[in-house]
């Protein structure tokens, strides 16, 4: 601090830091800007001879006149007030924080994470949503809801593009949950209506005399195939039966039969003694999932005989031409779909709580099936089963999150503890509210997009659904194993599904 025109007697010249600049008569004022008793024009504060410490001020070389105290006692350095500097620093800090917030929001929107954008008015009328409870009641006379009436009076067709773009930012968590479930229920109703129409036309086909001949699996109930394997065997038998003008027969009741509403239209039950004797030759499977051209000659090889076969029969080409039939055959019963919707409601309510975490649009549902459990070790692992890698799972969900945001992931697995370690983002729902395989599969059929791991269970969840994009793990089965030698990817995975690594 500088003091001008003060009497020398009023200045303490013995203090450590002298406040009076000593101007030499033969030097211009501009060469002095320090506050010591011996300025040298360097812009530094020099201590008294007893203390030689030098402190850089950073002020430009100016005369003492430029550093005088203002009328409001504010010290100026280089012409700027410290209050001004403080204000500018505060403004800069606010600007940087705002930029950080904007970047965070942009990142969340890009990756489908939910943000806290200011809510807008919910466009859906509560009167429209009040009909939702009627949908979940088993009342055959109740027509399904086809449209929602908006507050502006317009109608939105369920499962239409306008439904995907419905602004729900101002809606409560309960309304968003109901909207998601309402859209899925509409999908279930539509599929049921399509299947009923198909069955009506299918049953009008006149049976031929040769359809008294049958195709049956020799040991379906004895081996104890799982749900996915059971469905592959029935679907393959149906495709072969249609190609050879035969019918499908089950030699014994199988526990999975009770899951499907329309199975009785596609199969018959026959006793083994009715169809085969001890001399009947079984048509053995050469490979699990490699197309065998000899299968095309069944009509010639077995002109007037019932055909017993065995194996896993996982070449989808043998029944894919009858996809509508297969979907109708494996339509789940009402109690299965009702339980699936009830468990999904629990998952959504547990996720949303009382806060609407959605963006302005309803989130797309991405099913993630992760099979682990029995394939991590033991005989299935030794045969060639390989669980999907963590890298594949993360890459696949990141792809879905980046491409289709906003998204909500539903994880279905027999290894939920592992899945919770892998998927740490906040838009994952872990569907461990039940222990029913058929309910899990029914949920997979309702997803907008799917990330599969390995095996036949997830395969059928994708095949029976309408997912717009389906990923599967490329490195299954494991190289150098028996299972790898018996499965050809192009015969097991549809070409429209995407192989991931």
From TrEMBL:
The UniProt entry, under Pfam families, shows:
Glyco_transf_11 (PF01531)
What Gene Ontology terms describe where this protein resides (cellular component)? Golgi cisterna membrane
Q: What is its EC number?
A: 2.4.1.-
Q: In which pathway does it act?
A: Protein modification; protein glycosylation
Which domain of life does the UniProt lineage start with? Eukaryota
Extract the CDD domains matched here.
Fut1_Fut2_like
- InterPro entries annotated for this entry? Glyco_trans_11
* Name of protein: L-Fucosyltransferase
Q: What is the lineage of its organism?
A: Eukaryota, Metazoa, Ecdysozoa, Tardigrada, Eutardigrada
């Amino acid at each position: 601090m500088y003091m001008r025109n003060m009497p020398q007697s009023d200045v303490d010249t013995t203090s450590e830091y002298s406040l009076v600049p000593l101007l030499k008569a033969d030097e211009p004022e501009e060469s002095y800007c320090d506050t010591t008793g011996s300025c040298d024009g360097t812009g530094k504060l020099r201590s008294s001879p007893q203390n030689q410490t030098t402190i850089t001020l950073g002020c430009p070389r100016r005369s003492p006149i430029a550093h005088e105290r203002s009328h409001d006692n504010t010290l100026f350095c280089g012409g700027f007030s410290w209050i001004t500097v403080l204000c500018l620093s505060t403004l800069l800090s606010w600007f940087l924080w705002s930029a950080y917030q904007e970047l965070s929001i942009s990142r969340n929107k890009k990756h489908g994470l939910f943000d806290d954008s200011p809510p807008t008015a919910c466009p859906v009328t509560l009167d429209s949503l009040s009909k939702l409870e009627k949908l979940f009641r088993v009342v055959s006379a109740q027509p399904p809801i086809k449209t929602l009436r908006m507050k502006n009076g317009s109608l939105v067709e369920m499962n239409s593009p306008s439904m995907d773009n419905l602004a729900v930012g101002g809606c409560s968590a309960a309304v968003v949950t109901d909207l998601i479930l309402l859209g899925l229920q509409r999908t279930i109703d539509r599929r049921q209506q399509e299947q009923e129409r198909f069955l009506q036309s299918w049953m009008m086909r006149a049976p031929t005399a040769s359809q008294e001949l049958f195709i049956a699996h020799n040991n379906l109930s004895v081996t104890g195939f799982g749900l996915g394997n059971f469905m592959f065997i029935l679907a393959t038998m149906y495709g072969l039966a249609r190609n050879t003008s035969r019918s499908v027969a089950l030699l014994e009741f199988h526990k999975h039969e009770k899951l499907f509403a329309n199975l009785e239209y596609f199969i018959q039950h026959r006793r083994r003694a009715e169809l085969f004797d001890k001399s009947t030759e079984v048509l053995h499977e050469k490979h699990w999932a490699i197309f065998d051209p000899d299968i095309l000659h069944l009509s010639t090889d077995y002109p007037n005989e019932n055909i017993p076969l065995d194996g896993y029969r996982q070449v989808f080409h043998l029944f894919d031409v009858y996809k509508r039939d297969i979907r109708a055959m494996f339509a789940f019963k009402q109690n299965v779909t009702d339980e699936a919707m009830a468990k999904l409601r629990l998952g959504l309510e547990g996720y949303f709580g009382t806060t609407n975490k959605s963006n302005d649009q309803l989130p797309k549902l991405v099913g993630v099936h992760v099979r682990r459990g029995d394939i991590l070790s033991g005989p299935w692992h030794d045969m060639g089963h390989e669980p999907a890698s963590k890298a594949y799972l993360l890459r696949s969900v990141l792809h879905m999150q980046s491409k289709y945001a906003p998204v909500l992931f539903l994880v279905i697995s027999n290894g939920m503890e592992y899945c919770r370690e892998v998927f740490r983002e906040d838009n994952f729902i872990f569907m461990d509210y039940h222990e029913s395989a058929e309910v899990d599969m029914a949920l997979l059929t309702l997803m907008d997009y799917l990330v599969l791991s390995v095996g036949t269970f997830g395969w059928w969840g994708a095949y029976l659904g309408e997912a717009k994009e389906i990923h599967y793990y490329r490195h299954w089965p494991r190289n150098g194993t028996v299972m790898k030698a018996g499965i050809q990817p192009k015969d097991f995975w549809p070409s429209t599904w995407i192989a991931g690594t």
